[in-house]
Specification:
heterodimer; A: alpha/beta; Rossmann fold; 7-stranded mixed β-sheet; two-stranded antiparallel sheet; 34 helices; about 60% helix; elongated; B: mainly beta; SH3 type barrels; 6-stranded antiparallel β-sheet; 1 helix
Chain lengths: ~775, ~80
């Protein structure tokens, strides 16, 4: 990447969590940012453009952190970006350090670390409105003079304030042209260090040792190497040069001997320097800023009421999820159905038309209809997170999580996995302890993600009787649905416990988490999160699922000869055209007799005359009806034969012995086999397999009836309650999602863990389905 | 007159000054990063495991188990 001076200046945005950093970033750059890719690690860094008519800069939003001490490769990226060591970003013109105005002293810790990297820093004191309310009375020049960097106050929710910040940023860039601070940080000496001379001497010696060993390292990084005992830098450097360990040990002891224990030296030195710098300023809140939050917390974190409120909230969220999304889903289904008819009508009968309507539109459309549900789910999660409630939920859950050896930190990733395991697995980055993070990553795909929902709704709607108890308050179908939604989470408890006892043994991790004050969620932040996730889902439907749909269609269509099928279809269409008028009339009569919302059923007299007409029409169409029935029978037989002889059918018969003990026939086996890349594909596949062609979606009564009516060769129904339960258990526990496995391998750092996840979940699913079918068969 | 007790022995609403922190290095650094240093003022908001403490007006939930011991001196003026 070019380091030319005329490049658009890049600035890093750093800050503690909960300082309103994301809000300010969106306010400055607008919502359509792009995410930077970092090979080898999976940190998400947002790049946004800051623009006026004449000037331009790129802002790089780094993950919120309390400190630059890197404990993982992901955290290391932050330091490397700031030092200009990541080629994807290049050298920086400076850093914007965002601090919480109600908590300046503590936030200055990170600021002082960033400043010591040798970068120009602009300090942005955010939430200044709240700080003033809490009685903090300082001015920009005062703070700027004490800290020796430019300072600007800000309220990220106020547009005029954001405009002032933008102006300050461009002034800051002008005052710090790229040449002024240079790129050669390695040569920089700690001239005005807050650290004791004994420490600086040790850093010099370490830097000398490293460069003698051929390792040129910027001095700030050498300091971090010395300070961060067993941190990421140490691990990375010791690996190729094991003797470094003993050098580090000796140098650390040397500093300790001079009276400065290395463990804890950094906070002690930095906080002392910060206190000295701001001494006498009215910078601490006089009044409690968070009294409202604290009162609310009295309820929300209560060990009994808090849990009840949490359960109630989850209940409401999931209720709204089904009811709120339904109307839009119905609309989308209708739209995809019409699209199929429209496109199908324009194309000649044959493989191409079959591919477009049955393969592409049915496959992708069947999955896209779940977009409203997914958007709603992410909306709820984003609101709960942005208003500060998620941290409380994590606090409440810590008590339960410690029972399996995890901490409350694992809760939010697992909760997000109920929407989708991909953001869930990514959210495990907040867990510092590697073992706990690994356990959380490995069980996250067990949580019932939104893609399992269509399978449950279809099978429950078809096979679970719609009875209700307690005067209609509790309905059996919702109970079964709830049971399946919880199944993965319940199974995750022993799985996590076993993983924690065997592969990742260790103490129950400590739990330190900030509870940010409650606030109204920022519309921009929430919108951006929902937009990002929804976009990712649509892309997935357009790529992976599209591809699978086409492959499945091809395997089901070939190598058979479809001329007989096409001939029957053509004959049916022609016959229908000949009788078009009487058919239309018959439909009208039937509608009139049934009545509708706008037209009430006709009076008995009218009705009698209408029925007479209908009877004579039926007589007239008798021949037609008989012909159609015959043709339909032939069609089903032809299609069934084609399918059984297709590649898909061959594969199905081949795996039948494996799936028979689960109560499945070869068709279900094929459906499940095809849905390993993405579980929602099962709906599209069942649609194709059951010869229903056009308009196949989970809610579609056609598919439901087809499942209920499908028969084995001996005439017994294919689907019984035990079979339906066995399929649902299989889907609840199986790792049928390529994308999740890819993310698991990225986040765990090795594809072996993706294989592990796949194997253990599939084994669990098979055994679970087997037990379910065998036990349930004793009753039904 | 003062007495030293572990942080988790503070009662709800009680304030105290941190006098000593010891234990696992990583956890100690983490605690110091959030501002829990020797000399800091803490207030117990909700005792228990995990507990909620207030540090300079910000709330933290905390469970250190056996990995770290935070000793505090409760303020007598309450």
């Amino acid at each position: 990447m070019s380091l030319a001076v005329d490049r658009v200046p890049h600035l890093a945005v750093v800050g503690n969590p909960n300082t309103g950093k994301s809000t300010l970033f969106s306010a400055l750059t607008g919502i359509f940012t792009r995410t930077g890719n970092f090979p080898g690690v999976t940190v998400e860094m947002k790049l946004g453009r800051l623009k006026t008519s004449t000037r331009e800069a790129v802002l790089v939003d780094l993950p919120g952190t309390y400190s630059l001490a890197a404990r993982s490769a992901d955290e290391r990226v932050t330091v490397d970006v700031l030092l200009g060591l990541r080629p994807e970003i290049g050298s920086l013109a400076g850093a914007l350090c965002i601090v919480d105005g109600t908590n300046i002293e503590r936030n200055l810790y990170l600021f002082s670390q960033v400043r010591d990297l040798g970068l120009p820093v602009l300090l942005i004191v955010n939430m200044i409105d709240r700080a003033e309310k809490a009685g903090i009375a300082i001015t920009e020049p005062e703070l700027s003079q004490r800290l020796g960097v430019p300072v600007v106050f800000c309220n990220a929710h106020d547009q005029s304030s954001v405009a002032l910040v933008q102006k300050s940023i461009f002034e800051f860039i002008e005052q710090n042209p790229p040449a002024a601070h240079g790129t050669d940080l390695a040569a920089q000496q700690a001239s005005n260090s807050d650290f004791p001379p004994a420490f600086e001497t040790a850093v010099n010696e370490l830097q000398g040792l490293l460069s003698a060993h051929g390792r040129k390292m910027p001095r700030p990084l050498v300091s971090r190497l010395l300070i961060d005992i067993d941190g990421q830098i140490e691990q990375a450097e010791v690996q190729p040069w094991p003797e470094l360990s003993s050098h580090l040990k000796r140098l650390r002891e040397q500093v300790s001997a001079a009276g400065y224990r290395i463990s804890g030296i950094e906070p002690r030195v930095r906080y002392a320097a910060i206190r000295k710098a701001i001494a006498g300023l009215e910078i601490r809140p006089v009044r409690q800023a968070g009294q409202f939050s604290e009162k609310l917390d009295g309820w929300l974190t209560h060990s009994v009421f808090g849990l009840l409120i949490f359960i109630f909230m989850m209940f409401v969220v999931f209720q709204l999820l089904y009811r709120g999304a339904e109307p839009v889903m119905v609309l989308m289904e209708t739209a995809f159905g019409s699209l199929q008819d429209l496109v199908g009508g324009m194309m000649p009968r044959g493989p191409l038309r079959s591919l477009v309507t049955q393969g592409i539109i049915a496959g992708v459309g069947g999955v896209l209809v779940f977009l409203p549900q997914i958007v709603l789910l992410f909306l709820f999660l984003a609101i709960l997170e942005d208003c500060g409630y998620m941290a409380r939920a994590a606090f409440l859950m810590d008590r339960l999580m410690t029972k399996v050896g995890l901490s409350g930190k694992s809760f939010v990733p697992l909760m997000s996995s109920f929407a989708c395991a991909i953001p869930g697995v990514m959210a495990t980055r907040v867990i510092e302890n590697r073992k706990d993070r690994m356990v959380t990553i490995l069980v996250a795909p067990l949580m019932s993600c939104s893609a399992r929902l269509p399978v449950y709704s279809l099978l429950i709607g078809a096979f679970i009787p719609g009875v209700s108890f307690l005067g209609g308050w509790v309905d059996l179908r919702s109970l079964v649905l709830l049971a399946f939604l919880s199944l993965g989470a319940i199974v995750a408890i022993p799985v996590a416990w076993i993983l924690k006892k065997t592969i990742f043994p260790g103490e129950t991790p400590p739990f330190v988490m900030e509870l940010p004050p409650y606030k109204w969620p920022s519309i921009k932040t929430v919108f951006q999160r929902v937009y990002d996730r929804a976009a990712a889902f649509v892309v997935r439907a357009g790529t992976l699922i599209l591809l699978t749909s086409i492959v499945i269609w091809g395997l089901g269509y070939f190598p058979g000869d479809h001329s007989r099928e096409n001939a029957i279809l053509a004959e049916m269409e022609e016959t229908r055209q000949i009788f078009e008028d009487p058919l239309q009339r018959r439909e009208n009569l039937q509608q009139q007799l049934a009545g509708s919302d706008d037209a009430p059923p006709p009076s008995p007299v009218e009705s009698a005359s209408l029925e007479n007409e209908l009877n004579s029409l039926n007589q007239q169409l008798k021949e037609f009806d008989a012909l159609m029935e015959k043709l339909e029978g032939e069609l089903i037989a032809t299609q069934g034969q084609l399918q059984e002889n297709s590649f898909l059918g061959m594969a199905g018969h081949w795996i039948e012995p494996i799936v028979r003990p689960l109560g499945w026939d070869w068709r279900i086996g094929v459906g499940v086999l095809a849905s390993f890349p993405a579980r929602e594909v099962i709906i599209a596949t069942l649609g194709v397999i059951y010869n229903l062609g056009e308009g196949m979606e989970a809610e579609s009564p056609q598919l439901r009836d087809a499942l209920i009516n499908s028969r084995n060769p001996d005439g017994s129904p294919v689907f019984t309650i035990p079979v339906a339960l066995s399929i649902m258990v299989f889907f609840a526990l199986c790792a049928q999602c390529m994308a999740t496995l890819v993310v698991v391998s990225q986040e765990s750092g090795s594809w072996k863990w993706a294989v592990f996840t796949f194997v253990y979940m599939t084994a669990l699913a098979y055994v679970g389905a087997l037990i379910t079918f065998q036990v349930a068969s004793l009753w039904w | 007159m003062s007495y030293t007790i572990p942080l988790d022995c503070l009662k709800a609403g009680e304030s105290a000054q941190v006098v000593d922190i010891d234990g696992d290095t990583t956890l100690l650094t983490r605690l110091q990063e959030i501002g829990l240093n020797v000399g800091s003022q803490v207030r117990m908001v909700l005792p228990g495991s995990p507990c909620i403490i207030s540090l300079a007006g910000n709330q933290f939930s905390l469970r250190t188990d056996d990995l770290a011991t935070v000793l505090v001196e409760p303020s007598l003026t309450q």
